[in-house]
What we know:
By secondary structure, the chain is mostly helical. It is built from 7 helices and no strands. It has one domain (6-153): PhyR, sigma-like (SL) domain (Butyryl-CoA Dehydrogenase, subunit A, domain 3).
Amino acid sequence: MDLPPFQALLDAEGRxxxxxxxxxxxxxxxxxxxxxxxxxxxxxxPRLRDAxxxxxxxxxxAHRKAIDHVRARxxxxxxxxxxxxxxxxxxxxxxxxxxxxxxxxxxAKQRTxxxxxxxxxxxxxxxxxxxxxxxxxxxxxxxxxxxxxxTEYDR
Length: 155
């Protein structure tokens, strides 16, 4: 099978992969996930058997790297000077819309589905392929995420 040059894939999908990762893991962690995504993709690219939908393939790699990152982050200790008496809510950097606080609070499947739909502009069939679910489940995850965001954000 003839694969396009890897650089062509990077040029075509790089921006959307980065936007997807920012939406799923946050701006600070997106850079690390972005690099890991492309390194993993570069290693796997020569062995790729089906190049019919490279966009969905690279977003699947990014999705898995985001999951790995979130799991690893939950296992890492965060050093602090003084332990607070009560949990401190996370703050957003200046200029980040408040909606992203609500998006990051969504369950993982809903957060991923809404990011793939709104940020990467994928069709439901492609979202299902990336997430390893049915198309109906992809639709439902997007629907539930939007419903929850409307409820939470309108408060």
